[in-house]
Each structure stands twice: as structure tokens, then as C-alpha cells.
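Whiteboard transcription, Tuesday session. T.W. wrote the C-alpha cells on the left side:
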């Protein structure tokens, strides 16, 4: 902590010589950002959550990933209940 505060970084105005594309060549952007609602300026937690649910709900699931994830979660829950020695007989009726 000096008397004059922290040093500022130097800024350079560099443009590549042979770059013929549009926009900045130094901008880092994912290739699918234009197609997602969840990427961008989401202000609140509720807006982020609603956008994520809408994106998950309305995007076509061609590979069956949703069903696969649900099966994996169900198997992990059953294994966890087996490890903690949970009595699964409460879910079945004794007639």
C-alpha cells in the first residue's frame, strides 16, 4: 500500500496486420453463445433459473441425455440408501 495507490496497467492499441474477420480477434466467445438464452446479461437469480429451465425444457434432446441422467441419479440414490442401511420395506405394502 503506497502513497499513490496501486499501479495502473498500460493499454496498447494493437491491431493485427493480416486479420480480415469481423469483430475483435481477441474476443473470447463460445461458438454456441448465440443460440442460448442462459448466456448474456441475466440480472437476478430468478431470471437465471427460469432461463436455465426454459433452455433445458425446450431444447431437443436427441441423445437421450435427460433419461440417462435420471437413471444415474436414481441408481446413486439407491446405492446411498443401501450404504446407510435404510430400510426400503416401508415403501412396499404388507398385504
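and on the right, the sequence the group agreed on:
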Amino acid at each position: 500500500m503506497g502513497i499513490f495507490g496501486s499501479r495502473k496497467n498500460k493499454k496498447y492499441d494493437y491491431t493485427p496486420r493480416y486479420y480480415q474477420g469481423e469483430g475483435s480477434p481477441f474476443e473470447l466467445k463460445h461458438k454456441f453463445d448465440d443460440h442460448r438464452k442462459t448466456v448474456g446479461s441475466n440480472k437476478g437469480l430468478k431470471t437465471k433459473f427460469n432461463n436455465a429451465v426454459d433452455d433445458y425444457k425446450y431444447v431437443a434432446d436427441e441423445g437421450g441425455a435427460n433419461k440417462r441422467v435420471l437413471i444415474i441419479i436414481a441408481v446413486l440414490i439407491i446405492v446411498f440408501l443401501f450404504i446407510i442401511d435404510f430400510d426400503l420395506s416401508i415403501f412396499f405394502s404388507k398385504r
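Someone added at the bottom: The mean pLDDT is 77.
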